[in-house]
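Notebook, student rotation project (T.W.).
Task set for the rotation: take a protein with a known small-molecule partner, predict the structure of the complex, and write up what can be learned from the model alone. Partner molecule chosen: pyridoxal-5'-phosphate. Sequence and SMILES entered below by T.W., checked by me.
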Amino acid sequence: MNRFSLQCRRCGRVESFRPQATCGSCGSPQLEVQYAPDSTLAASWRRESAERSLWRYRDLLPIADARHAVSLGEGGTPLIAIERLGRQLGLGSLYTKDERQNPTGSFKDRQGSLALSILHEHGVPEVVVASTGNVALAYAAYGARAGIKVHAFLPSSIPAEKLREVLLYGARTTLVEGTYDATKSAAARFAQAHGLFLDQGFGTVAAVEGMKTLAFEIAEQLGWRAPDWYIQAVSGGMGPVGVAKGFSELQALGLVDKVPAMGLVQVSGCAPMAEAFHGRLRQPLPVLEPATAVLPLATGTPGPAYELLFDLLSRDGGTFTTASDAEAWEVMRLLARTEGISVEPATAVTFAGLIKLIESGAIGPNECVVVNVSGHTYSVEAHVVTGHPADLQESVSGT
Ligand SMILES: Cc1ncc(COP(=O)(O)O)c(C=O)c1O
Ligand SMILES: [Zn+2]
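Predicted structure of the complex:
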């Protein structure tokens, strides 16, 4: 048996691994990677390793030959105890997983590295990807390193700094007037017309498999233990689906005893998943005109991840909450000034949501909470800082 294969989430059929596939039995595009049991794995992972990248966990990644890994040292990011802000918020055990320290400044480098590694291993020469910015940045960088041409489709409202970075890596970019959903459709049409490989986000296994390495690292950094909560802002929902799969795999290995509850935050102006969850709906209603400046979180039609999250939260606990752009802006400064951590607005939404989850009593004072600090300010700096220089100056001199 191969070390890994694809299994259909809908009907359970198992097939050999390909970078993109639909189920040969029911036609579903929702396939998940499964791994052959390995009784030596838990003991080998428990041994300390000097390796500081997500490739430390290559035994549970869908790459046959590790020499095909396209790496810039992604993953292996620090888990930082946030004591002062934790105390202010009434939490005794608050950590940030500092994903800003990835090569292009966001957690999407986990997906980018793995996606381009898979394409490299399977000899795919070009890839089409739709993104609000961070995925395109990651794919552009890893595409350059792999020698794979990247066609990035981006909403025209993308901050100029992010666009510049994507272009710097040599990706071919197309700006689409309209929402992120319109951008995804344009990318799909382009890929179809030119017979090119289309990265389908959640439908491409790299998203979930890349993100699950967050769980492996968090568990190891906590001494092979799962936190009580994992907190993240969500748009497509790839992160928490991956993290939950990672903790489930660790649980099956006996390395942790549970999957953490998920505290998932959406921005108020575009919260289809949060609204569906609180309405007990398995299908979200689309948000046709997202009303937020936080572009990475402006996915109006979340797609299949929501249903999985609905089931996961029902099984392992957790909830959705929302935070506004204004609340995020305020928390962005609080975090920078209290802990020296400067984050992009999408990540500030996470912290604003965390505060709500604490205030509502969903998260208790003695629970261990890990927050994904998913992206750095630098790529949107002009938008965040120069856009409000007077404000910033005023509050600096006022303190
Ligand atoms: C910085 C940042 N945080 C959070 C998210 C949400 O990620 P997802 O919903 O795919 O898990 C994104 C998505 O692009 C992002 O760029
Ligand atoms: Zn099937």
